[in-house]
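Action item from last meeting closed. Structure (148 res):
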């Protein structure tokens, strides 16, 4: 399902999840309130994954069916709505004291970190799934798209 939406989305979601695991394992030992640390982090990770899915969906919708002006307006409007939803998540977390806001922010930043690491993760996954085989045409195409 995710691969039909966007070729890089599954790897992006996997990167966010791996980032969350690394931050959880390394940081929980230094936290005074481990429950709030963990809950804030995973609320942020889920938010980042939802944002990645939403971005991929909006890109697919605007590419398929709109002219340039309408696409620009829709992307801007949906982007504002997405960030408003993130503010709502932060507000609810703060109001109900569901988690640490700093770790929630770190979790949401998993989207950025995963986006930067996605080309590397793509290469690693290709080597693992192809048992060390060489570069494929799909890999070369994605590498060219990332470099542009």
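Sequence:
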């Amino acid at each position: 399902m995710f691969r039909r939406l966007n070729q890089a989305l599954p790897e992006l979601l996997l990167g966010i999840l791996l980032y969350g695991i690394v931050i959880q394992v390394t940081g929980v030992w230094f936290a005074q309130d481990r429950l709030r640390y963990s809950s804030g982090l995973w609320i942020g990770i889920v938010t980042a994954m939802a944002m990645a899915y939403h971005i991929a969906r909006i890109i697919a919708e605007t590419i398929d069916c709109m002219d340039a002006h309408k696409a620009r307006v829709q992307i801007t409007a949906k982007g504002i709505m997405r960030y408003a939803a993130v503010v709502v998540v932060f507000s609810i977390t703060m109001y109900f004291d569901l988690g640490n806001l700093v770790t929630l922010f770190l979790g949401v930043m998993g989207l950025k970190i995963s986006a930067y690491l996605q080309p590397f993760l793509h290469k690693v996954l290709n080597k693992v799934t192809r048992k060390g085989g060489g570069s494929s045409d799909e890999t070369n195409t994605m590498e060219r798209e990332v470099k542009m």
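Note appended to the action item: The CA atoms of residues 17 and 45 lie 7 Å apart.
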